[in-house]
Design goal:
The chain contains 4 helices and 15 strands. It has about 270 residues and is mostly beta strands. A hairpin with a 4-residue loop joins β4 and β5. The N and C termini lie far apart (about 50 Å). The model has no long low-confidence stretch (mean pLDDT about 95). The chain binds 1,1-dihydroxy-1,3-dihydro-2,1-benzoxaborol-1-ium and zinc ion (ZN).
Amino acid sequence: ESKPVAWGYEGDIGPCNWHKYFPKAGGKRQSPIDIDTSATQYDGSFKPLRIHYDSHMCSSLTNNGHTFCMSVNSDQCNLSGGPLEDKYRLLQFHCHWGSDDTKGSEHTVDGHQYAAELHLVHWNTDKFKSADEAIEKNQGIAVLTAFIKAGKEHRGWNHVLSHFKDIKKVQGTSTVNEDFNPKCLLPENQTDYWTYEGSLTTPPCHESVRFIIFKEVVEVSSEQLAQFRSLCVCSSRKRDTGEDEHLVDNFRPIQPLNGRVVKASFQ
Ligand SMILES: O[B-]1(O)OCc2ccccc21
Ligand SMILES: [Zn+2]
């Protein structure tokens, strides 16, 4: 079978060259984008978002070398309503962050980049039989997205961060059995959001994603943001100083909008 192609966020394997091995990365509906709030269009037809997660789900946290990924295997975590026509099931959540608090998010708002961005990834269980099938199909994926900025400590995030020591190295995995409901990672206001049709922001960049991006920004402490940066990119590679290479700046540059309209659920 085909050898997996290495990709990253800098140098020859960085975002500018992804399209060479992952042709969809050069497509017309790529993510992330800048949200120009003067050009968004209010859509009054959206029903309320329905985010039903349970907290009795066993899940595992992995460092996949590009981010930390909390995989969820509960069929009780579902998303529907809002701009969505179908029911979607939570598959995993992960984040993108920077090397300091001034950068890290993938989407920007009027050119402003936040310190980090949370992606809660769901797949369409009405239209597809598996997440692997849905991830490459139009309307296959819905990603609930929250911006993160440095501010007061976020107690909910400590349930995730407390496992980071077990996944410092790549392919490290830790089982998370405690009572944790990822809904606590979302902002209080879940009625005001932007939404548009885009892509995975990582190779193979399938154009299968409906993004739902909350306007309200979530605060975590600077120390908690520093813990994101404690993960290492690979088990072997060392800097010439013998130090570990830390996983930071795992965000893709802004992509062309190509005429797409970003809808707003609020006026
Ligand atoms: O590329 B992403 O991080 O953003 C959306 C998404 C969906 C599924 C896997 C990975 C991603
Ligand atoms: Zn992501």
